[in-house]
Amino acid sequence: MAYALPAALVTEKGKPQVEVAELFDFILDTQTLKFTSYTRDVSFYDLTGAAATYTAIPIAREGADTNLDMRADAIRIAVDNVTKAMSSYIANNEFRGRRLVIRRVFTNLLSAPTYYQPVFDGVMDRPLIGNTRAQIEAVSRLGFLARLGPRRMYQLRCNWRFAVAPPDSGCANGIAAATLKDTRTAQTVDSGSTPTVIQDAARAEAANYWKIGIATFTGGTAANVGQKRRVVASAVGSFTVDVALPAAPAAGDAYDLERDCDLSFEDCRDRFANTQNFGGFPSIPMELVYKG
Predict the structure, then answer these.
(1) Cα of 268 vs its chain's centroid, Å
(2) CATH architecture of 7-145
(3) Where in the chain is the domain with CATH 2.40.10?
(4) Cα 121 to Cα 102: distance, rounded to the nearest angstrom
């Protein structure tokens, strides 16, 4: 059923001068991130109709691909990452396969939860993180209704959620999820650690065994407790995190380690020996050649 704009909204749209804001709902497993691209926070209603505040951050839609019906099939979102806040959200939450909703509201017409215009409702792909911004692509949920066959993106990278068994994913098909998502809890830091390089003689695993994984600091130096960091490299006796911790960990500080995958065919093959379950399409040509 098509969404009918409320009469008050139609009237507002017809005015010669209006001020609009776009609201972004990133619906994750344990929380919903509510952002707005407006110059200040916007008090409106969330998707359930409950009063909510949408936090103003530098966020923009970089463009959208449309189908023949002029309906947005895909969209790209750019989010500021200078403060590394978005990196933290991405490190601590699964974005891929989760819902993204964008709505447009008029800033002087926020008194009812129906006073919005739908812009986009789709499912996100894995975010790409840079030093200054994070980019997220999403495809329309409407497109799924007409899709035949396996519901996977035709892309080089794996479509599956890491270490999840069917029917929710195809990664751990015939292989124990715990084998893939190896987790070590209550580990302790050795002396000589820095805010980015963690020393631990117990780390006897092969080089880069923990690369892409998540380190969570659970005890010891107060400034670091609760901090999570992405592992960018690991070696025998140490590992390196992507963003410096507030303080250098002291000997005896506690931490947990959890493996992760970068969804490439090479990672699946070389670190997990799980290519039989690879969910991407590694044979897609890197360059398309058109012949007349």
Answers:
(1) 20
(2) Beta Barrel (2.40)
(3) 7-145
(4) 6
